[in-house]
Structures are given as C-alpha cells and as structure tokens.
Write a structure and sequence with these properties.
The complex is a heterotrimer of chains A (266), B (274) and C (328). With 274 residues, chain B is mainly α. Chain B has a single domain, classed as MetI-like fold. Chain B has 12 helices and no strands. Chain C starts with a helix and ends with a helix. With 328 residues, chain C is an all-alpha fold. The chains are: A alpha/beta (266), B mainly alpha (274), C mainly alpha (328). Chains in contact: A-C, B-C. The A-C interface holds A 55, 57, 78-81, 83-85, 87, 89, 92-98, 106-107, 110-111, 142, 144-145, 155, 158-159, 162 and C 220-222, 224-232, 235, 239-240, 243-244, 247, 317-320, 323.
Chain lengths: 266, 274, 328
C-alpha cells in the first residue's frame, strides 16, 4: 500500500540562525493511511517545524529543501480538507470574538462547498461528536465561556469538519491538566479510528505518545534519531537519547496494556 | 544604538529636518537681526522678485523669510517647553498616584479623568483668555491638556514596578517611601513615557500653531500660526503667504514624528537582539 | 442586555466625581477672570449700583469663595449656566442653539475618518511590509503631521479659489429658499471642506492604528489556525484579523471625541460654521468668560456621553466585556 504522506530529504532552515543548526535536517519519513505516528522530542528538536512544514504553514522566510509528497492523494494536500491541524493552546487557536459554532461552520463552508445554513448544522453535529454537552447552546458560546478542555474539543471539531485524511495534533494536550488531557487523548483516538484518518501526534511526552501511537519517531536537534513500533521504542530503544527520554519518565510500564479507544468521559 | 538608529531612513530624514530647523531657530537673530514684525518693503511682494527679500513680503510689507526663521524659534521653544512641562507634571502625578495608592491615587486619577474629559484645546483657549496671551501662558495652557497621557502611562508602569524585588529590598533596608518612589521606581518607569515624547512635542507644536492662528499667541512674537492667519486675508491673491509657513509647520511636526519612530524602532531592535 | 445596563450604570456613577471636578475647575477659572455673573447681567440689562448689590446678595455672590462655589453648584443643578455677556441671553440657550451644527460636523468627520481610515488600514495591514503598506504608512504619517486649519486653507485655495467647486464658508447658502433634499444637499456641499479638514488627521490616526493592530493580530495563533483550517486569505483578513484589530479602534473613537471637539474650534472659525467651536472663539473675542465656561461644561458632558455610547458599542462588539462580573 502506498503511504499517504512521504517526506524525502526534508530540510528547513531559518535565515539568520547558525548555518550548522537546521531546524530540520534531511528527514525521510512515511505515514501510511490510517497509521498513528508520534513524533517525540524536546523543544527545539524540530518536531513542530515538521508539522508546520507538512501543512505548508512555515513562516515566509523559512528555507525549505526536499520534498513533501502525498502518494495517497495523488496531488498536493490542501489544509482543512486533507490536513486537519490541532494546536497546543486552544485559548489562542480560536478567534476570541467569534462564536465557536461559526468558527467550525466557516471551515465546513470553505472545504465542503456547503451553504452557511448547512455548515452551521454540521457545526452542531460536530460539537456533538466531540462530546460537548448541549451542542446547540455550545455553538452560540464564545471561546472565553468554555473551559480549556472544551475549547480544545471545539478546535478538534474545526480540524476534522473538512474530513481530512491526516490529523496533526501538535502538543494538543500539553496546555491541559492531566484529567482533561486523558479525555482529549481518548477523543482523538476515537475520532481517528472512526474517520479512518492518519494521525501525526507531536509531543514532548514519550509516555503519552506511546498510549496512542502505532509508531514513534524520536527527534533531536532537527534530526530523526530513531523510529520504530511504539512498543519496541518504549521497551527496547536502541538509541541512547531515546533511553534518556524514557528514563525521564520513570514509572511508565512498557508492558501496560493501553486502550486509547476507551472513552473516559463516555 | 546610534548606528541602529541611523540605519532607519525615517530616523535619518527626521534628524536632518530637525537639525535644519534648530539651525534656522539659532541663526534667526544673526541672519535677520531686524525685528521680524518690522515693515521692510512694499506690501505683498511676490517671492523671488527681490534678492534681499527672497520669499517676498506679507500684506503689511514684512519679510516672509525672516518671519519663517523667527517663527521656528517660537514653534520649537513653545513646543519643547510645553512638552517638557507636561511630561514633568505627568510623571510626578503618575508616580505619586501609582506609588501612594489608596485615596491619593483615587483623587489624582479622577482629576486626570476630568482633564481628559474637557477638550484640551478649549481648556487652553479659556486659560489664555483669562490669563492673557504671553509665551509663558501659552506654554502652561498647552501643558494643561497634555499632562494626562504621561501621567496615566507613568502610573501604570509604577504599579507594575513597585512590587518588584529591588523595591521590596529598598523597603527592607528602610528607605523613605518618597526616596524609593523617585530614586528606585521612577527611573525604571520613564522609558515608555519618553517613547511617547515625540507625539507630545508634535501635539504641542500643533496646538501652539492653532492658538496663534486664532490670534491667541504672544502678540510680540512671530509665529507660523499667526503668519498663516495673516495670509488668510489675501488667500485669493497671494495664497503662498499662508501656504509657506504651513509647510514649515508640517515639516517640523513630520520631523518630530520621524525621529520618534526611528528611536522607538531602534530601541525595539536593540531589545530584540538582547 | 443586562450586561449593557450594568455597564451604563457603572459609567454614569463614575462620571459624577469627574464632572464635579470639571465644575470646580470651571469655577476657579470664573473666579480668576475679571467680573462676575452680576457684572455680566448688568452689561446685558443695565442696572444701578444698588440693584447690582442686591443681585449679588440674591445670587450668593457676596459671600466667601466657598459660599460662591455652593451657589454656583446650586445654579448648575438647575441647568442655569449663567448669563452670556456678548449675547445678553442665558448661556445654555446660546450653547444649545449652536450644538447641533457641531454634532453634525463631528459626526460626519468621525464617520468619514473611521470608515476610510479603517478601510485603508485593512488595505495596508492585509499584507504587512508590501509596497502599498509602506506607501500608506508613510502617507498617513505625513497626513498626521498636517494641522487641520492649514489643510482647510489649502483645500479652499484648490477647491474654492481655483476650481470654484465648493463654497468658501458658512453652513448653507443664505436665503436660498431651499428645503428638504435640496437644502440637505446644500448643507452637505458646505460641509465637504470642513469635514475633510477636521477628519483627515483622524483618518491618518485610524489608518495607523488599524495597521498596527492588524500587525499584532497577524502574529496570533488563531490566524495560523485559520490557514491550517483551509480558510481563504480574504476571510482570514476580513473576518479574523481586521475584526479583532477593529476593537481598539472603537475605544479610540471615544478617546478622540475630546480632541475632535477641540479641533472643531479652529475649523468652525475658519469656515464660519455657527457651532460650538466658533462660539468658543467668539466668547474669547468678546471676553465672555461665563459663555466660554458654559461651552467647556457642555463639552465635558458631550465627551462623557460619547464615551458612554462607545462603551456600549464596544460591549456589543467584544463578547468578553463584563464576562467576569456576569458570573459573579
């Protein structure tokens, strides 16, 4: 089966920064349809640059080399309808002065070619799917009236309303407290399964990533240091840096059976 | 800092304009020793006719170029003095309000509100009308409407600074509150106020011009606003009499703005690099 | 709606001490000026020394400064702003007669500068650093340096003296016999130059603020998120960036009302528009301090009213206003 997304020799550099330090340094990576790939690394490892490069969201001055190809689509990917993107801070990624229902509906209208009324109906439907109580009322709310977890659910709804093939979650749970984090993780896992999306899960937290990912890729200083099945990376890492990351997470049990499909808030 | 400053074309342009103006103001009594209000030639001589009167004369036969030079003195002097007065008063009020807190703060801020509620130009008008037009009165009149903005900014800065460690430290070693306010807090609260100073100077120059345009400037001095008003009577036949001093006014204000923008940009770049 | 009512109540309560300070300040200015209200009255209606003394006692002007202040406050509470020396009529009557013209001038100048300024600001701010951005930024800075009264003269030279398109001064053609739409059009023609002279400074201000505000909003996450969600550039610029950058502009609308009232003094004098501003200049010319103080008081009330309206508009535009207390 051909991969959905294929990165070949992808390098990103920002002018002004030291030439020796590329934000991303010749990355080769494939994501299969329906696969869940986690990108792990500390801040500055290039993992967020990778996400932005895939979604063509890098700042204008970034110098990009290599290829981002979409064999699974047979064309260039378009944001919204092919790629869904969930950001770290839900308070910042939603427009503070627009009703959340409208913020989902405008994405539906831009990507699905539906009218405004149909888009609004879809928004309410989506709010229900991301388990916001009273979706009709919630659609009328402004972001500041929702909790952090609720806002992230709205952001997820806006990311998937265009029925994308790939969902990118860039530290999507790190701004939330532990209990809400688990709920959002479960929600992402469920939606990815139901929609048959691929997932690119970007996190600094290897334990969290191992709960949801099929494969884990470890990044450091813009390079891919190790990639493999999640269980293997967690239980038997070959790279010393990966081991270091794991040691920082004492108390994670590599043999623990994790069921990301379990809905904690169901 | 200075090299950064000169890299911005705005700052260079502003510096050149203001340097020329200051030169004009300083050279005025030397280049044009005669009273600029004296009649020196035929009335309404057009520009470029007589090399001793290059810009011609006004309706009463006064030298326009001499007026421009002497007007630069008044504009710059009043503008700078009024801006300095407003900044000093504003910084004092803001520091006291922010540092004292409580009812002192409350009273001072309500007074600030009141001054911001009355149109500054009307206040200046009323003050000059009651106190009589002279250079000092005009300076105070302009400052009456301009001290509130620096006061608010200083207060906000002081409020954020007074809880910091070095202020607490000064308290612990038993410094007098007034000493803490003016020696520890105030110097750190100044930069944002100074960043605003170009806007205050520009506004003061414009207010002075408007007052003298209405005939409320010092009658013994040449002002650009007065020259514009003077030329208005012969606007149809000799529009340049109003237009030329206006251009000087626009260039002055523009120079001040450009300089201010350049300074703010340069300090922003400097902070960005640090 | 409840939110707006609470806001209005709080603002009105807050305005009371401010107005009181304005009144006390006005009183001090009146005291500093030569002559008092009785002198003003006597100038209008005459009267011998005995009658003047009696009036002074009746109006409470013969007592201590504090007693005089109390008497002044008492008369203000009865909407009595004193007697105008120059017009021989109550100050309030003269002021209210002139107020509508000023409101029309200011309203038109505000509408023009806000609409055009924010629209051009969006044009400049939609592509930061582009040619049109730099052009508009420098152009607005230059415009910002132009004093309104001089701009007015230049416009008169161009449009009245040279092109003969627009009238020189006044509010409308005297004794034109026009009514209805024809009269409105005539007034509009008379107001073109004054509105432009008064408004262009603010146009530059709003343009610069809009541009700066948009530059700030561009850096926010939800703009990047909009691109990640596949929204068109047009929608991101208009519905998200400009919409958020508009909020501080609306606040500015209230803050600038005092400045614009001040500016209207010169512009109304220049174009001979019988409004509050020209009245102020006339009051200065006639040494009519009670009238000048009356204008200041009415202006202060006007500024408070405009700010109240702006606050209500702001609350309608920004859902976050008053959110904290709504839950309390």
């Amino acid at each position: 089966m051909s991969p959905l997304l294929s990165l070949r020799g992808l390098s990103v550099r920002y002018p002004g920064s030291k030439a020796s330090l590329a934000a991303l340094d010749s990355i080769d990576l494939d994501i299969a349809p329906g696969e869940r790939l986690a990108i792990i690394g500390e801040s500055g490892s290039g993992k967020s640059t990778l996400a932005l490069a895939i979604a063509n969201l890098l700042p204008g001055n970034a110098l990009v080399q290599g290829a981002v190809e979409w064999p699974g689509l047979g064309r260039k990917a378009e944001n919204g309808r092919d790629i869904g993107f969930v950001f770290q801070d839900p308070s910042a990624s939603l427009d503070p002065v627009m009703r959340v229902g409208d913020q989902i509906a405008e994405v539906a209208r831009a990507n699905l070619g539906v009218g405004w009324r149909a888009a609004q109906a879809l928004a309410i439907q989506l709010l229900d799917r991301v388990r916001l109580p009273e979706p009709k009322l919630a659609a009328q709310a402004f972001p500041h009236q929702l909790s952090g977890g609720q806002k992230q659910r709205v952001a997820i709804a806006a990311a998937i309303v265009g029925k994308p093939r790939l969902l990118i979650a860039d530290e999507a749970t790190s701004a939330l407290d532990t209990i809400v984090q688990a709920e959002i993780m479960a929600l992402i896992g469920r939606l990815v399964t139901e929609e048959g999306m691929s997932l690119l899960f970007i996190s600094h937290d290897i334990a969290l990533a191992s709960q949801i990912a099929d494969r884990i890729a470890v990044f450091r200083h813009g390079r891919l240091v190790e990639i493999g099945p999640a269980r293997q990376i967690v239980s038997n890492p070959t790279d010393s840096y990966t081991r270091l990351l794991l040691d920082a997470h004492l108390g994670i049990d590599p043999h623990l059976e994790i069921d990301a499909h379990l809905e904690i808030d169901a | 800092m200075s090299r950064l400053f000169l890299r911005s074309p705005e700052a260079v342009a502003g510096t050149i304009i203001l340097a020329l103006l200051v030169a004009m103001a300083l050279a005025a009594p030397w280049l044009f020793p005669r009273d600029p209000l004296a009649i020196v030639g035929p009335a309404m001589l057009p520009p470029f006719q007589d090399w001793t009167l290059p810009l011609g004369t006004d309706r009463l036969g006064r030298d326009v170029l001499s007026g421009l030079f002497h007007g630069a003195r008044t504009s710059l002097a009043v503008g700078l003095a009024a801006a300095a007065t407003s900044i000093i008063v504003g910084v004092l009020v803001g520091t006291i309000a922010g540092f004292a807190g409580g009812w002192v703060d409350e009273v001072l801020m309500r007074i600030t509100d009141a001054f911001q509620t009355v149109p500054g130009f009307l206040l200046a008008l009323a003050f000059v009308s009651v106190a009589g037009p002279s250079l000092g009165v005009v300076v105070v009149a302009i400052a009456l409407g301009a001290w509130t903005q620096p006061a608010r900014i200083t207060r906000a800065e002081v409020l954020s600074i007074r809880e910091r460690d070095y202020v607490a430290g000064a308290r612990v070693i038993g410094m007098h509150p007034a000493e803490i306010a003016f020696r520890e807090v105030l110097p750190n609260a100044l930069p944002p106020v100074l960043a605003l100073s170009s806007v205050i100077v520009a506004a003061a120059v414009l207010t002075e011009a408007a007052l003298s345009f209405l005939g409320l400037g010092d009658p013994n001095r040449v002002t650009w606003g007065g020259m514009i008003a003077e030329g208005r009577a012969v606007l149809r036949s000799a529009p340049f009499l109003s237009i030329v001093p206006g251009i000087a006014l626009v260039l002055t204000v523009l120079g001040v703005y450009l300089l201010g923008e350049g300074a703010v940009e340069a300090s922003a770049v400097k902070r960005g690099n640090a | 709606m409840n939110r707006a009512l609470r806001l209005i109540r709080r603002r009105l309560l807050g305005a009371v001490p401010v107005l009181l300070i304005v009144v006390v300040g006005s009183f001090l200015l009146l005291e500093a000026a030569p002559g008092d209200a009785v002198d003003a009255y006597a100038v209008s209606f005459g009267g011998d020394a005995g009658m003047i003394a009696a009036l002074r006692e009746a109006w409470g002007l013969d007592g201590t400064p504090f007693a005089r202040l109390t008497a002044y406050l008492w008369s203000l509470l009865h909407l009595d702003l004193g007697q105008s020396v120059a017009f021989s009529r109550p100050v309030l009557d003269v002021v209210l007669e002139r107020l509508p013209n000023t409101l029309l001038l200011m309203g038109a100048a505000t509408a023009l500068s806000f609409a055009l300024g924010s629209a051009l600001g969006i044009v400049a701010g939609s592509r930061p650093g582009s040619f049109r951005d730099r052009f508009l930024s420098i152009g607005s800075l230059a415009l910002y340096a132009v004093p309104g009264f001089w701009l007015g003269l230049v416009l008169v030279v161009i449009f009245t003296v040279q092109l003969r398109w627009l009238p020189l001064s006044g509010m409308e053609t005297i004794a034109s016999g026009k009514s209805g739409f024809g009269r409105a059009l005539d007034i509009a023609r008379h107001l073109v130059l004054p509105v432009a002279s008064l408004g262009f400074l603010y146009l530059a201000l709003y343009l610069r603020m809009m541009r700066a505000g948009m530059a700030e909003v561009w850096r926010m996450d939800f703009v990047l998120a909009g691109r990640a969600r596949g929204l068109s550039r047009r929608r991101i610029v208009l519905r998200h960036v400009a919409r958020n950058a508009l909020l501080p502009l609306v606040t500015m609308l209230g803050l600038q009302s005092a400045g614009m009232l001040g500016g209207s003094v010169v512009i109304e004098s220049l174009f001979a528009i019988p409004g509050l501003g020209r009245l102020a200049q006339e009051a200065v010319g006639a040494r009519d301090t009670p009238l000048l103080i009356g204008i200041i008081l009415v202006s202060a009330v006007l500024v408070i009213a405009v700010n109240l309206l702006v606050d209500i508009a702001y609350a309608a535009l920004d859902p976050r206003v008053g959110a904290g207390e709504a839950q309390a």
